[in-house]
Task: structure prediction
Amino acid sequence: MILIVTFPDNRHVTEVVAHLRRPWVGFDIADFPARSRFSVKFGVAGEDLVLVPPDGPVIRADEVGAVWYRRVRPMDLDPALTDPTSRLFAWSECQEALTGWWHALDCFWMNPPAADEVGQRKIRQLQLARRCGLSVPETLITNDPVAALEFTDPSVPVIRKAFRNIAEAPRTTALLTREDRSRLDEVRYAPVTFQRFVPAALDLRVIVVEDEVFATSIRSEPEYQVDYRPGIGSAEFARYTLPDDVAAGLLDLHRRLGLVYGASDFRVTPDGEHVFLEVNPGGEYLFASQRTGAPVPQAIAASLSRHDAAHQA
Result:
């Protein structure tokens, strides 16, 4: 059985399940513990580790051969539990129980939760990418105003970006302006990421599924030179073949991060240099694969099905 841990109406999952050739079941962490049941038994007769979704079949750990862990939602405690201390204790116990259940699954993961956690850390990504031979932008991440001022020389274009864009305080990736420079003292409140601007002949979205690499080139309008995402609607998409050394470096990065799946962004400079920007362990693939016909959903489905079949054999 293939277990897909995600939220309902996830279009990326819907595309994949259409190609699965093995039984599968979904589980939304947001249903736990309020709407789903959990049970673990160890005894003379053996062991039984069970999850029961609200509307799904019983999931037994020993029947799971592959897990796709994709963009999960947080747990949902019962609203009847109102005391703050009691809610904190309940959350801690639920977290320990569910994490223990995941670690008890002796099977294939795309991606292991621990690898997802480490893999999304931008500092570790850049560190390992360099060690894998990938070119990365000259970068400074700091809460030191003096260091920020020294790095952001007005004669050299620099971008600023956040580690993570949260809904409550959205931050775009943008070129540093004169006004930004006048406020560099504010980095003392929280570290800011500064990078030398990398001019792009093309942007690339590169999907890796195990050892398969699916690259898409994105040619944007000039106004989207800093960040191609707002200009997706007018951009030109095409399949792209990474140079062998770049593909090898990216696969090495995945291995070091423990990632089975990842969506990476690269820039191809006018001189043809391929510059790695970041990898997202749960990154989107549909906006690229639907425009180019790249068989990414099929590759994910084949990987999960293959490992599940091998586990059950």
Summary: The radius of gyration is 22 Å. The chain has a mean pLDDT of 93. The CA atoms of residues 142 and 191 lie 5 Å apart.
